[in-house]
Design a protein that fits this description.
The structure is a homodimer of 148-residue chains. By secondary structure, the first copy, chain A, is an alpha+beta fold. Chain A has helices at 22-32, 41-45, 56-73; strands spanning 12-19, 83-89, 98-110, 117-127, 133-144.
Chain lengths: 148, 148
């Protein structure tokens, strides 16, 4: 189990990759973000997207998928997140793209009111197969401290 | 069609509601956020969640679903969003909850480089059936200006 004490400020982790498929882009958008440029190449061609592009919330979800799989695999004692700052969708994410998710721990702070938990801030960066940054955000994450 | 010129700073809009189901919470978490407290009541009982709670990214996606349906229905000339600031997951969202999404336009700014678009900032607030705020964020949205 990885606890708050095991986190290293400044350490960068490459969490992994996610292959973006046309079917999933359309499924997600149909359910959660049915704006025309997420559903149809014709509609997207009339915008700066040019062709069908993933919903930004879908990119965030795919990013979380990559992080969560890594976190669950190494049994991090995470307790969820109170929030996200400065999320930026920098470039469109297209079907056929393969995104890479990496994160750097910026700071960690033991809770003053709850001695068994701490919080840390990470900078998450998502790039596509051409090395172009497509999304970034800062997140706050709660984590258990090592017992005893 | 609703254009940038039609937006009114300070105006609050109630976009609608979303019923949170256990099946959808588990489906989303399985795919995008498989942390134990989003998948199992037993695991969630060992955390401050108490019982199975929606992924925060799922709450964001459900929120977008409510906004997008309203925006598409009234044919807003939106062009996507460059980003989100100060997203806060204030309280857990549970299966059986019914969330209400409302938004207030904080400011609008015509683009200096692109005469056919403008951007606006909105404060989005999500509450549950008890009137408790569960999430809030500020978003930046691009929109077409009225032609001609």
């Amino acid at each position: 189990m990885i606890y708050f004490e095991d986190l290293e400020v400044g350490k960068q982790t490459v969490f992994g990759h996610y292959a973006v498929t046309r079917q999933e882009v359309i499924e997600f958008a149909t359910k959660y973000d049915p704006q025309p440029f997420h559903l149809s190449d014709e509609a997207a061609a009339k915008t700066h997207f040019g062709r069908i592009a993933a919903s930004g919330w879908h990119t965030a979800a795919m990013t979380m998928a990559v992080i969560a799989r890594a976190v669950v695999a190494e049994e991090q004692a995470g307790l969820g997140s109170p929030g996200i700052d400065e999320l930026r969708w920098l470039k469109p994410v297209y079907p056929g793209d393969r995104i890479t998710v990496s994160g750097t721990i910026i700071e960690k702070t033991p809770s003053r009111s709850k001695p068994d938990i701490g919080s840390f801030r990470t900078q998450t960066v998502v790039s596509n197969q051409d090395g172009v940054e497509v999304m970034r955000f800062t997140s706050i994450v709660l984590m258990r401290r090592r017992p005893g």
